[in-house]
Design a protein that fits this description.
Layout: H1 2-30, H2 34-37, H3 39-48, H4 67-78, H5 81-94, H6 97-122, E1 125-127, E2 130-132, H7 135-143, H8 146-180, H9 184-199, H10 202-231, H11 236-247, H12 257-273, H13 280-284, H14 292-321, H15 330-342, H16 344-376, H17 380-397, H18 402-443, H19 459-462
Antiparallel strand pairs: 1-2
Length: 477
């Protein structure tokens, strides 16, 4: 544990914060703040996403993944234990100021999310009835660096398929034990069985489950937090002041001071919203859209949904209740905070919420691993072996120590993020050209469409997924 913590501290304190926020600031300037100036358009696209789709694939839309389904799969991965347990850990260890730095990571880091998701769409490949893609694909096709692409594919498989899912099931086990007294082993076995049933249906079953569960639970959780804020409205200004003061070390010492607030805020913020990490592009690539920027913008909205809504909901629940100095951490702190506000019902509600949030994260994380395993070697036996390994690790994860699984996940996530950030810094020019093309078409009153001719130098890499269209937007024979 000492070795793991030493590596973790060096990686995040001296390297990750600078790289992550540096890239985010660069892309914010490069795109002229696309994550801010196009928010109304993002919302419009999301509301219309079930109607759209690429005209190339319009012959059989039932077999493709809609833009909204891709959004909910990525949101399923984002909205999980990071929103409930991760936020609580950040506040308990770093103080209320960690919340402020989570907000910063979301607002600035959303630019990273836009670039990586747009690139995932540009370089996606056909996969039977749908598409697949992600950093491994745009590194291979855009940079032609096989070793780099394979390194990322291995890292994300280890990070999300194994380490991250261990965190998710660990939090499930703790929450279900505290709420209902269920033994962690039986919780792990039941969850494993349920996960295997869903993932055996592939991306179509995963997206169908996600688009039903995620929006309902997110709305219920946010409404509960709003109720708690209203009940404690007189304390709200003091809570906001506490967050800002602690973020810059101005107020009374909380947690580990300003330094710890920054580190934990960035770390837990990244774990939750995943902007720039290289995970959500794997979901973004599956969407059936007429222009890559459409999905890039929708995925950007997902960063805000995760951090500014769901993570903030958890933070206000804990801070308004005044129990953040109780000595508890993780999901137990969030449960205790809710219990002080709405009684025993809160323990049961949060137990169910954690289960559903974490469960959908597990199946989305699995898909990220699957699409990268197919990149490494599209082999049915390899995929079967991975599913069996995942099932075994889910059971082990339900019995593991919280500190160990979080620390290992942080290291794996950091290495994966470095790999992806370096790639999008080089390839971001293509996403920017797509954005200019998209805005230009909107100004001309068109529903933007895309073909390889927008990026002619990439014809050989992208023409199969983005063929040339005629004047009516129909694929040329």
């Amino acid at each position: 544990m000492e070795i793991i913590n030493t590596i973790n501290d060096w990686l995040w304190t001296y390297l990750m914060i600078g790289v992550l926020l540096g890239a985010a600031l660069f892309f914010t300037i490069y795109t002229r703040g696309v994550q801010f100036r196009m928010i109304p358009h993002m919302i419009k696209l999301l509301l219309e996403s079930n109607k759209g789709g690429s005209k190339v694939e319009s012959k059989d839309k039932n077999k493709t993944i809609s833009s909204f389904q891709a959004f909910t799969v990525s949101l399923a991965s984002r909205v999980g234990t990071g929103n409930i347990a991760g936020v609580a850990i950040a506040i308990a260890m770093g103080g209320p100021g960690a919340v402020f730095w989570m907000w910063v990571v979301a607002l600035i880091g959303a630019a990273n999310g836009f670039i990586e998701s747009t690139l995932a769409q540009v370089f996606k490949v056909r996969d039977k009835d749908s598409f697949r893609g992600g950093p491994a694909y745009y590194i291979m096709k855009g940079l032609h660096k096989k070793w780099w692409a394979f390194t990322f594919a291995i890292l994300i498989t280890l990070t999300f398929g194994l380490a991250n899912n261990t965190v998710q099931v660990n939090t499930i086990a703790v929450a279900m034990h505290d709420a209902f007294g269920f033994e962690p082993l039986w919780t792990g076995i039941f969850t494993t069985a349920l996960v295997l049933v869903v993932i055996w249906g592939g991306i179509h079953r995963i997206s169908t489950v996600s688009e039903v569960i995620v929006p309902i639970m997110a709305v219920c959780y946010i409404l509960l937090s709003i109720y708690i804020i209203i009940v404690n409205i007189s304390q709200f200004p003091a809570v906001m002041k506490l967050i800002v003061e602690n973020a810059f070390g101005w107020g009374p010492a909380m947690g580990g001071g300003m330094g710890m607030a920054v580190v934990l805020g960035v770390k837990r913020g990244l774990f939750s919203n995943e902007a720039g990490e290289g995970s959500t592009p794997n979901a973004a690539a599956t969407a059936n859209v007429s222009h890559p920027v459409k999905q890039g913008l929708i995925q950007t909205l997902g960063v805000y949904t995760d951090t500014l809504l769901v993570c903030t909901a958890t933070a206000f629940i804990i801070l308004c209740s005044g129990v953040f100095t109780s000595g508890l951490t993780g999901v137990e702190l969030t449960q205790y905070a809710l219990k002080t506000q709405v009684g025993e019902f809160a323990t049961w509600f949060l137990g169910i919420a954690v289960y559903l949030f974490a469960f959908t994260s597990i199946i989305a994380n699995y898909y990220y691993s699957e699409t990268n395993l197919k990149f490494i070697k599209d082999n049915r036996r390899l995929l079967l072996a991975f599913r069996v390994t995942l099932g075994a690790l889910l059971i082990v994860g339900s019995l593991s120590a919280l500190e160990v699984v979080w620390a290992i996940t942080d290291i794996a996530m950091g290495l994966m993020t470095l790999c992806n950030i370096c790639a999008i810094l080089v390839l971001g020019k293509y996403a920017m050209r797509c954005l200019k093309d998209y805005v230009s078409q909107i100004k001309r009153g068109k529903d933007p469409s895309f073909s390889w001719r927008t990026l002619p130098e990439l014809k050989d890499e992208i023409q199969d997924s983005w063929p040339e269209l005629d004047s009516d937007g129909i694929t040329k024979e």
